Amino acid sequence: MATFAWRGRNARGELVQGQLEAIGENAVADQLVSLGVAPVHIAAAEPVSEADGSDWWARLNRKAIKIEDILVFSRQMYTLNKAGVPILRAFAGLQASSDKPAMVDMLRDVRSSLDQGRELSASLARHIDVFGAFYIAMIRVGEMTGRLTEVFLRLNEHMEFERDVRERVKQAMRYPMFVMIAMGIALVILNIFVIPVFAKVFAGFNAELPLITRGLLGFSGWMVDWWPLILAAGIGAVVAVRGYLRTTEGRYRWDRRKLKLPIVGDIVLKATLARFARSFALSSQSGVPLVQALTVVAQTVDNAYIGSRIEQMRDGIERGESISRCAAATGVFTPVVLQMISVGEETGELDSLLFEIAGMYERDTDYSIKGLSAAIEPVLLAAIAVLVLLLALGVFLPLWNMGQAAMGKGG
Fold this sequence. Notes:
This protein is mainly α and 411 residues long. Among the domains are: 1-61, Ubiquitin-like (UB roll) (Roll); 265-370, Up-down Bundle (Receptor-associated Protein), CATH 1.20.81.30. Helices cover 76% and strands 6% of the residues. It has helices at residues 25-34, 55-60, 67-82, 87-97, 101-115, 120-125, 128-131, 133-145, 148-203, 211-246, 248-258, 265-285, 290-300, 304-318, 323-330, 335-347, 350-370, 372-410; strands at 2-9, 15-22, 38-44.
């Protein structure tokens, strides 16, 4: 297929333009008419020269596809499917209306894959780094059950919740992170530029300095003498830790440990379990078998430790055990949640009760996030107070002693 540039007028008479891939100009005109655009000019698009000096800069500054883009895509696909628009025509319209190059290229590739006869789930799987395993698995279920429209709606709601949780956590952590960064910068400036000046003053006292002052001067001198090595060691440590966390064992250990961190560990656990409950409910409601649903959900909870506990549930269900018994064996659910799972399993209303569990964890997560800043602020204030006290005593105690000595001699 070739790429054609077009100009036309929409139903409101406004001039619009864009590019479409099609077999010929007539196919482009047909697509535009189906989208409610009256074509004015259609011509083959001029190929972009790879040797263009600005091309590499455009690729470098290209904005990646974010969760907001996929959220809007899901909502648009839900609306288009509900209106009965054919899938190929829907992708053509989304491609023509998108103004983000990365999104346009992704839609073009998916549309080309659909043209070749592939299913939507297989076409989206070509971009699994953008959509994720859970999204693609749910699309596959929607295709098999004929409930693709409902699946797009459920995915949209699910992604909105995840985005809201991330934004609330970022907002709660913004102030503590700013204070910690400011403290780090202040320490570097004091140890490299300020304390060495006082060290020259103290050197002329010819007297024994207090222990705190000697400690500050020693630490400052160590930073001034070895700062290149300290910087290199810091960068190396960051690279080594990130490399370790990319390994299976490293990620498992860290995901398990961060659930036990003070203040934030409980929030991470509740948010992860809320995501599990909502994903499991969505999969079960869409008709996915329990074992397959748990396999997919275990890959999408974004926590290797919780994922392993979910796989443990799956293995128990495969052996014929009940869901409530397997959930209790994981050791991560509260007694109230275990009771709700047991009731849902007995009454056949597991889907609705899983959504209730998700809502309960979401409310707990929201409440905990709102109090996150209030819980961290006292710790930060205590750290700042200790830092200021040490600096004040280390710098001013020798001056105070010198003043006392001078007054004693004067007297």
